Amino acid sequence: MVARRLDTEIEEILMHIKQKHNFLLSGGAGSGKTYSLVEVLKHVSVLYPNAQIACITYTNAAAVEIINRANVDNLTISTIHDFLWENISLFPNELRRTLIELVNSDDSGIKKPKADEEFTLTNDIIIQYKEYTKLKSGEISHDEVLVLANEMYKKYPKLCSILKDKYQFVFVDEYQDTSPLVIKILLEYLQKSNHVNVIGFFGDSMQSIFENSVGNIDKYISQGIVHKVEKEQNRRNPGSVIKLANKLRIDGLEQKESDDADAPNMAEGKLKEGTTRFLYSNKFSINMVKESQWCREWDFNDSKKTKELRLTHNLIASEAGFDKLMNIYDNDPIYKFRKDFKKFAEQKNYMFDVNSSFNDVVRGLDWKYSRGDNSGKQHIDVFLEKEENRVLYDYIKKWSYEKVNQIYMDKDKLIDDKVEVEGVTVRDAKRDYLIQHLFKIQDIIYLYKNGMYNELLQKTQIIVVTNRDKAKFRDNIEKLISMENKSIGNVIDFADQVDLCVKDDKFINFVEKNEYLYWRVKKIIYSEFQNLYRYLEGFTPFSTQHKIKGLEYDNVLVFLENGGWPNYNFEYLFDKHIFATLSKAKQTTYPRILERTKKLFYVCCTRARENLVVFYPNPTEGILEGAKELFGKGNCINLDRDDVD
Length: 645
What we know:
With about 650 residues, the protein is α/β, with parallel strands linked by helices. About 45% of the residues lie in helices and about 15% in strands. Strands 3-2-6-7-1-8 form a six-stranded parallel beta sheet. Helix 4 crosses helix 6 (about 140-155), helix 5 packs across helix 6 and helix 6 (about 140-155) packs parallel to helix 8 (about 180-190). The radius of gyration is 27 Å and the shape is globular.
């Protein structure tokens, strides 16, 4: 077998490494950045066999590549939070001192447990990294770890030297999604130490689509702190998608076809052309798009080959069939009413007994509408005009204000993903314990239906010895499966009664602390949760445009509806003349929103291996003008025309 010649980019990176230069490998979608990372790891391990390498990765695909292909003994792979915690937790005294200072600081971002009290911790309290924050107990979560680490490396230069001595190489994958606090640690605080190590970054600034991420490290490149290496080839996308993607890029990098005849987007030594279409209509009809000649042959039941993308989970929930659960977690009337009332009371400096009933407190304050048809009416009376609101209010109105004030709803607790690759947690989930418990139940059903009996027995921990045991076990699961049209509460109770999924301490504690949430969720039909499960596990063609970063599909359908999200605007993306029509306030935010929208659209389009269809409802003439410039006039199709099949 002939050894493959090293790519030019890898040779350039190895040159920088030998010169102890920090570097960035910048490559567009489908360029093979993960392959390059794995190759660099292999070569560094051979060149410096005694060196310790830390690799920080965020994506499923990158973790799989590294774990399965690198096979490097002196490699530590972890999330950025775990990496930082591993290092700062070795210094408990400095950790405690810094946490106390940050909590008592007005601008650190870490809030005091009690605003009017000085925060302190006794020496016997050990600071621990958890999924939640309980500062009085010394328990901190993701956000506090970043702030703490940043402050400690800034305040204690010796920690920087210790880290550099411990890891001679630190490689950061998907660097563009890293917090600016982390970048400061790596490229500012560590650089002040005269100890030597190499920091390497891999990623693409055009795929920076998450809030509060660094986006790019251009200023460090211009200062000579980081040396940039570009990877121009594209091994994933067909020619039509590459052409479109290059028009969207804002960093000067222009991708080209691969020089590898065996690349996935090559056929008989030539780049596949593929198709890109911009469809539009005066009405929003999903079926009309799917039944058009450009999508008709796609198998929307095959989630591995076909994906349809929306901007938010909310826009997917109804079609995917979990909208009732989403409405509870993201649009609960009582939760919103309580938040609005609390804000009003704080603004007016109203004092009241938090142990009084919620109803007495709300009706005891003069909270009235000041405008519109409801002017002069009490907020509570307007709120109770809706029957749904009356039912919910009747359930909690006799509770103490303090108990109602503890009600908490967050859609991330419903739909956030926990990513595990080969037993390694790449990113922890934010799902609450009720949803985690339901996942355990549905996992049991999934394992049974797919004949994965060893995993099933291990998960349930039920001992099956005799045929009678086996029959009882099978009958219980079959009955559980048949309960899809029963309520979630019924399913949870039955699974507990037959020991398939026991209500453990965490579940019981969660229900006690979240009585209202559980009361609402347990009445929902279980099949709705099953729809959520299928969506989150990737068994449906639906996905948000954020969730698919790093993935690829033969066919990609993108729906460009804004959904009321203030950080993106697809009209800005296509209509070059719209800026002049905006107010001064919107003109100020226009560049930021345009850049974010362009990056999100870039990520969506570059998922396609064969065919890309973008659908835009009710476009203006300005939007159509921009679409024709991006896609080509012949690829922009009006679905309302009679001559369109």
